[in-house]
Specification:
This protein is an alpha/beta fold. The chain has ten helices and twelve strands. Strand 9 and strand 10 form a beta hairpin. It is globular.
Amino acid sequence: MKPLDLGALRRVIADACPGNANDLVRRTLARHGLAAEGSGTAAEDPLSAFSRLREKPSTTPTARPIPGARFDARSFTCAAGGRDYLIYIPASAKDGATGLIMMLHGCTQTHADFAVGTGMNTLAEQHRLIVVYPQQSRGDNAQSCWNWFSPGDQRRGKGEPAILAGLATEIARSHDIPPSRTFVAGLSAGAAMAVILGETYADVFAAVGSHSGLPLGIARDVPSAFAAMAGSVGNAARGGDRCPTPTIIFQGSADHTVHGSNADRIAADIIAAGPEQTFLDRISDQTNGRSFVREITTTSDGAMLLEYWQVEGLGHAWSGGEPAGSYTDPKGPNASAEMVRFFLNLGEENAGS
């Protein structure tokens, strides 16, 4: 195999975002699992680690279903393309499911790994939820990232949004789950794609969960994706005639892979698309010694619009996740539990409206 030209790598990244080459190399390593930020372990020199990239062993943990539940591997195809996926049907849903959550993994992760790390199947049993975990194919992105930065994957009726919305619609229909109880959440690139789905398929998804994500349209190619991740987001929120999809956001203050300004922009976009008058409630608290601020934005009639969790000391890792999965931080607060609460409360609101 031809040796990796580390100098060339540094130059490519420097060209993508001048002045941040070392930092971007480290973020690249984190996305490849060689410098995971939630581990608390000091990272080795980034260029040395990158030379071992292809040698890192691949392990895929498995979430085992309880008796009576099913965790099946399936595939979906439509005019826009297809993807493999896992679907968890809880034993508790034998008399009907209360909702559907689509979970989108981050770069270098697998759907099985993401199921383990988020612990979402356990919550699915408690709340009679069906959970679907699509898998990004290596053929569509070499690092298994959802292509949130590609213009062809940022619009309705094309690319990955069309595939994922089609998959969610098919599963929801087969289990008699209405759009008002169909939700989508993700981590990092998966969160960025979840935000896209919330804006382009609001008729399919009633709410969005974004953990360490990025806003729609902030990047149009790989260089601008690196720039956005580094914090070149801008201040202008996009308003217009859009109807905002209620969203819950988790962002860590120590996330050095996706800058926190991206979460701020997602929040600003949601509020800008909402009604002129909203109400903000800010709560400061802590769990397991970790401080967080939770901002809740509602409309004048009390409808939930936005919940924004800013977690002190959390890196680029799923808050409150299981240590057996990648990119998790067990210390909390528990993002999975809070997202489920947010989604189900909205489902109740929609049912009563």
